[in-house]
Design goal:
mainly alpha, Serine Threonine Protein Phosphatase 5, Tetratricopeptide repeat
């Protein structure tokens, strides 16, 4: 099989699957979410089976929609309780390829996100289901985002779908009284979705541009909705846009990782930076300070020209750690601390969280220690940390960077 076909199907899965599942769920009802997912999945499998031999159709997205519609009609004819929905299914694919791609299908995806984030569904399961159904994530990707076991995530998804089947929620944005709890789960899901694209945990690519772009698109869709126009939604939109703006400069033409200080700022996306600061302004309207406000402020510090204000960034991380006690936040704070008080202070801060079980196998911790020991003038300990990092799962660009650092350290010794 030509490698281009699986790559194209993966691309289409990221771009089309979420809105296809959402549109089908609108027609079939939330209680048939699993059926909608199965229909879309089968259309993608059919593409993998057919396109290598018959060629890629002129309109691949339209082909997938037509196959999904035909499969749904086949299922409806067998299920008496769904037969009344046949007429709606016949008109379904036409709505997806209409001249209004930002209209009903966009609303469908927004409603789909809130279906996944029903208050009756456990919080962890809500986010996992959103990542899978709307973001097209597989169980391994979700497990990496959560630093959890795949079996744990699989069980969460099963329980979430079972609960939605039981409660049969309406396909709509929740009423105002239910919005706050549901919105927090929505924002968390989009935050995790972006993180997986921004710094993939494994694979050939460090940055998965399509995943980042989809998370940015969805969070802006949420923040611009009249019922969801609240500061924390705009704060997350600001954070994701400011981070995404740097993506074009984060790897060189060969795909090698470039640190912030090595990046060509001329490659940063100025339109995203402007949009990010626009949302940051809108985030400042309310009294509540969320973790997204603090992280967006940190991102803004790295974006603005001039010398980085590390003492201010450290203070922001102190506030963030108070709101979000997390070993990952603690690790990032340790880097800021090292920039303010020196590498020895950063090393001590990292060692304090090193034993946290959620950081087992987390390569950024070993890499951070390696860099801090190198700055502290201890190449032997630095090399040991980098070798430890190489034993952990990480993207290929990161592995190449670690190997480069090791070679440099061996020259020093």
């Amino acid at each position: 099989m030509s490698p281009e076909v699986p790559q194209l199907v993966d691309h289409l899965f990221r771009r089309e699957a979420g809105r296809m599942v959402a549109a089908l769920t609108r027609v079939l009802g939330a209680e048939n979410l699993s059926l909608a997912e199965d229909v879309v999945q089968e259309s993608l499998v059919q593409a993998l089976r057919t396109w290598p031999f018959r060629g890629v159709p002129e309109n691949p997205g339209g082909w997938l929609m037509q196959v999904a519609k035909n499969r749904a009609l086949d299922l409806l004819r067998r299920e008496a309780n769904l037969a009344r929905k046949e007429e709606a299914i016949r008109g379904w694919s036409a709505s997806l390829v209409s001249d209004d791609p930002e209209g009903e299908t966009m609303d469908d995806q927004l409603r789909m996100i809130f279906i996944c984030c029903q208050p009756a569904v456990p919080r962890e399961a809500r986010v996992a289901l959103t990542l899978k159904t709307v973001g097209g994530f597989g169980v391994p990707e979700i497990a990496r985002a959560y630093l959890a076991k795949e079996a744990t995530i699989a069980q969460r998804l099963v329980r979430a779908k079972r609960k939605i089947q039981e409660i049969r929620p309406p396909f709509e944005v929740p009423p105002p009284a239910e919005l706050p709890a549901a919105l927090d789960s929505v924002l968390e899901a989009l935050y995790l979705m972006f993180n997986e694209g921004y710094a993939a945990a494994a694979g050939e690519e460090l940055v998965r541009q399509e995943v980042c772009a989809e998370a940015v698109r969805l969070v802006r869709l949420v923040a611009e909705h009249p019922a969801l126009d609240v500061p924390r939604a705009h704060a997350l939109a600001a954070l994701l846009l400011l981070q995404a703006a740097r993506n074009p400069a984060r790897v060189d033409p060969e795909g090698n990782l470039l640190l912030l200080c090595e990046q060509d700022r001329g490659l940063w996306d100025q339109s995203k930076i402007a949009a990010g600061f626009h949302h940051l302004d809108r985030a400042a309207r309310g009294p509540r300070l969320s973790v997204y406000h603090l992280e967006a402020a940190i991102a803004a510090c790295h974006i603005v020209p001039g010398e980085t204000d590390w003492p201010y960034i450290l203070s922001l991380y102190d506030d963030l750690l108070a709101l979000k006690p997390s070993p990952v936040v603690g690790l990032n704070r340790a880097v800021a601390l090292a920039m303010v008080e020196g590498p020895a202070a950063g090393i001590r801060a990292v060692e304090e969280i090193r034993g946290d079980p959620t950081l087992a196998g987390y390569y950024p911790l070993a890499v951070t220690l390696g860099e801090l020991h190198a700055r502290a003038g201890d190449p032997e300990q630095s090399a040991a940390c980098f070798r430890e990092a190489l034993e952990m799962e990480s993207p290929e660009p990161v592995r190449r960077r670690i190997q480069e650092r090791l070679r440099g350290l061996e020259l020093v010794r």
